[in-house]
Amino acid sequence: MRFRPHHNLAVADCATNPLLRALLHFTAHLLHNRNRAATVLQAVPPSPCVVGYAQSGSIAANTFSLGTSPFVAVGADVVKIQDMVVPTGVTAVPYSQRTTNALQLQVWNGSSYTIYYYLSDAYVEATDEEVTGWADSGGDYTEATIAPGTGYWYKYPTAASSFTLSGQVSEAESVTKNVSDAFNLYGSPYPVSLNLRKVSTTVGAVPYSQRTSKALQLQVWNGSSYTIYYYLSDAYVEATDDEIEGWANSGGDYVEETGAAVNYGFWVRSLNGSGTITFEK
Predict the structure, then answer these.
(1) Residue 48 sits in the same domain as residue 127
(2) Are residues 268 and 246 in the same domain?
(3) CA distances from residue 78 to 118, 199, 230 in whole angstroms, order as listed
(4) Residue among 107, 126, 128, 125 nearest 116 (CA)
(5) What one-character DSSP code corresponds to residue 271?
(6) CB proximity list for 104: less than 8 A, separation 6 or greater
(7) pLDDT tens for the chain, residues 1 to 281
(8) Which of 3, 39, 140, 144 is the residue whose CA sits 20 to 30 A from 134?
């Protein structure tokens, strides 16, 4: 059995090495998804100039964990799953145990999940050998990539686990995602907490009276239920006693800050036609 080496990034001064940055330490917080018990992974950047990697907090066995990708590869706009997600304290298992004992990465594609497994015998066709790494459902070593702001779930059925996320913060000033009446699993494409002032959309705003029937919705798990934000044409700003177009809470009040912390996934759904949602840096 051949083991794939982990990618360890050296610590550097971001002033002299601006292309490499972002060390994220992950902590776990219990949550509930619509159909699954889950753990949300939150990333706390200790310094914007720290470069390298950090081990995550513990993830309970047989529990789903929700996250999002805040990174790209150096010089790219995506990052390979193999390079971004390096499990630690995880036992890779053979393909025959993939559905029962393997660490799983489940990426939402808009209607279902594409599942990757951390295997001890991932098959590399080019070299006709088996290595430790992420594999697709057929057991083949994957070269799949993941874009910043893509939502996903982890699950490790057999024991507590941890992992490392690594990469570069995207230099793009904004990232745009498609939205529809289906549930879309996204997250901030940057390693910062979500600020709705920097989230715009091409989906038309609707009045407060239509919030539950036609509005674009952003749903954030708060630990016991979903906090829902609506894109309204008449969000009320108490400080100025005015109504503006923007994001509002269930009471119709204009809001900017949410409970979506760093590396925190959330659901986006449009009930007012398809469009796009854009996250600014």
Answers:
(1) yes
(2) yes
(3) 20, 21, 29
(4) 107
(5) S
(6) 115, 116, 117, 118, 153, 154, 155, 156, 157
(7) 322 333 333 333 333 333 333 333 333 333 334 344 444 443 433 333 334 333 354 566 787 777 888 888 888 899 899 988 878 778 899 999 999 999 999 998 878 899 999 999 999 999 999 999 999 999 999 999 999 999 888 888 877 777 777 788 888 999 999 998 888 999 999 888 889 999 999 999 999 999 999 999 999 877 678 899 999 999 999 999 999 999 999 999 999 988 787 778 899 999 999 999 999 99
(8) 39
Residue 47 forms part of a structural domain = yes
Q: How many domains is the chain built from?
A: 2
The pair of three-digit structure tokens given for residue 117, joined into one six-digit string: 């497994």
- The residue whose two tokens read 């100039």 is 49
Whether residue 17 lies inside any domain: the answer is: no
In 56-187, which ranges are continuous DSSP H helix?
A: 81-84
